[in-house]
């Protein structure tokens, strides 16, 4: 896959992501309509597909993918469309199977588990009480998988050591917040 | 002391094979290490959750730019159409009212014909200069302006209510519709052989004023009065007004 796109997704390069979003939007909407996706759901599915491809970029999975960004994006999109059609079918009589076997993009199966455990929900409340810079450092370290060195460069910290101490301070605050939480 | 470097490498997926083995060993044997890693894994999930939500709202903001563009372009397209629609609407409304005017005017002139003089035979004589005679002469000659004045004078002299009926006719024929209405209404307060006929002329006068409801009322009054005068016409006109 195009390296610069993967990097853009991984590093949250807003400018390039916005450009990508615009490049494939109309084609994706037309593609979804072919499967009779409701008008109101078009942008939601497109955004979900972008979100999923970004997750794969962050997890490093995209580096192993040989197909182009577009093929992969539309493959994820196809998976999300099928899922949505199944939702429609459960609400009304709708034969989603009719559309199986369309020969356009190969479906890319993704697992979306968005639900947080109870423990994580409590953590989330405390996480949101942290300062913005703490949230950012923790997100970059644990979700985006950046090293302290990389964070220092990206966020303009003086050194890797500053990031390290900042990170441990943030984690300590977070743990204290959990301990003090009345919800615990 | 927890091996921070090892944990950092684990989350940035940079553990070498040996380091991975060490990591797994510590995770299964060192409870404090495991607790820390589990905690950080939760931090990972939570920050992912938050970061994804932020990313999605970022995408939604891109999308809203497209939607806004779409609506503005629709508005641009809509403007000439809206203007066209407005013009059409005005034209249709005007046409409707003009048509109505023509219809009522048409109906009035279709049906209106000043009543014949059925009351007083005219005596043409150079010496008989009474207003009544003069009034009917002028009326017969369709000299309504003159007739109105003479009927007025004759009525004040004779108090013959039938004269009000002819004066009303003269007024209506000369386009003084409102005055005609007043005159016919005055005539209706009397009871003479022409009284019920005033309903017919009142109806026509109201019709000319585009007051179809009042016109219908007068037509019904005429029909229900048992008066034979213009009964058929009244019925057919009533149908056309409904």
Plain-language structure description:
The complex is a heterodimer of chains A (184) and B (242). Chain A is an all-alpha fold and 184 residues long. Chain A folds into two domains: 3-99, Rna Polymerase Sigma Factor, Chain: A (Orthogonal Bundle), CATH 1.10.1740; 118-180, Orthogonal Bundle (Arc Repressor Mutant, subunit A). Helix content of chain A is 66%, strand content 0%. Chain A is built from eight helices and no strands. In chain A, helix 3 packs across helix 4 (69-91). Chain A is globular, with a radius of gyration of 20 Å. Chain A starts with a helix and ends with a helix. The relative contact order of chain A is 0.09. In chain B, helix 3 packs across helix 8, helix 5 runs antiparallel to helix 6 and helix 6 (162-173) packs parallel to helix 8 (197-208). Chain B has 242 residues and is mainly α. Chain B folds into two domains: 4-72; 112-241, Alpha Horseshoe (Serine Threonine Protein Phosphatase 5, Tetratricopeptide repeat), CATH 1.25.40.10. Chain B has helices at residues 4-11, 17-29, 31-111, 131-140, 144-158, 162-173, 177-188, 197-208, 212-224, 231-241. Chain B contains ten helices and no strands. In chain B, 77% of the residues lie in helices and 0% in strands. The longest helix of chain B has 81 residues, at 31-111. The A-B interface holds A 12, 14, 17-18, 21-22, 25, 43, 46-48, 50-51, 54-55, 60, 114, 116-117, 119-120, 123-124, 127-128, 135, 138-139, 141-148, 150, 164, 168, 171, 174-175 and B 4, 8-9, 11-14, 39-52, 55-56, 58-60, 62-63, 66.
List keywords for this structure.
heterodimer, A: 184 residues, mainly alpha, Rna Polymerase Sigma Factor, Chain: A, Arc Repressor Mutant, subunit A, 8 helices, 66% helix, B: 242 residues, Serine Threonine Protein Phosphatase 5, Tetratricopeptide repeat, 10 helices
């Amino acid at each position: 896959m195009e390296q610069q796109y993967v990097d853009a997704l991984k590093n949250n390069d807003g400018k390039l992501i916005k450009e990508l979003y615009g490049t494939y939007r109309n084609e994706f909407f037309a593609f979804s309509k072919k499967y009779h996706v409701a008008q109101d759901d078009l942008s939601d599915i497109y955004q979900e597909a972008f979100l999923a491809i970004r997750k794969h970029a962050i997890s490093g999975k995209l580096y192993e993918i040989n197909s182009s960004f577009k093929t992969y994006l539309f493959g994820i999109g196809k998976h999300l469309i099928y899922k949505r059609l199944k939702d429609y079918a459960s609400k009304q009589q709708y034969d989603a199977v009719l559309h199986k076997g369309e020969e356009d993009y190969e479906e890319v199966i993704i697992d979306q588990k968005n639900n947080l455990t109870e423990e994580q929900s409590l953590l989330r409340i405390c996480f949101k009480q942290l300062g913005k810079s703490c949230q950012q450092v923790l997100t970059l370290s644990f979700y985006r998988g950046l090293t302290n060195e990389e964070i220092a460069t990206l966020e303009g910290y003086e050194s890797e050591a500053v990031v390290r101490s900042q990170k441990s301070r943030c984690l300590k605050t977070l743990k204290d917040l959990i301990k003090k939480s009345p919800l615990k | 002391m927890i091996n921070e470097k090892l944990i950092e490498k684990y989350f940035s997926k940079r553990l070498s094979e040996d380091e991975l083995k060490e990591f797994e060993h510590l995770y299964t044997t060192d409870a404090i290490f495991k607790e820390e890693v589990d905690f950080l894994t939760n931090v990972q999930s939570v920050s992912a959750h938050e970061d994804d939500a932020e990313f999605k709202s970022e995408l939604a903001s891109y999308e809203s730019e497209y939607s806004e563009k779409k609506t503005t372009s629709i508005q641009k397209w809509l403007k000439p159409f809206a203007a066209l629609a407005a013009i059409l609407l005005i034209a249709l409304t005007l046409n409707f009212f003009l048509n109505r005017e023509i219809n009522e005017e048409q109906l009035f002139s279709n049906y209106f014909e000043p009543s014949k003089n059925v009351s007083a035979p005219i005596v043409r004589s150079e010496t008989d200069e009474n207003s009544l005679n003069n009034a009917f002469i002028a009326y017969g000659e369709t000299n309504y302006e003159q007739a109105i004045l003479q009927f007025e004078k004759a009525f004040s002299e004779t108090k013959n209510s039938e004269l009000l009926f002819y004066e009303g006719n003269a007024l209506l024929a000369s386009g003084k519709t409102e005055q005609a209405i007043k005159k016919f209404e005055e005539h209706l307060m009397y009871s003479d052989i022409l009284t019920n006929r005033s309903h017919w002329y009142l109806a026509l006068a109201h019709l000319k004023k585009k007051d179809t409801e009042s016109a219908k009322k007068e037509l019904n009054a005429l029909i229900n009065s048992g008066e034979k005068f213009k009964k058929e016409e009244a019925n057919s006109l009533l149908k056309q007004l409904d």
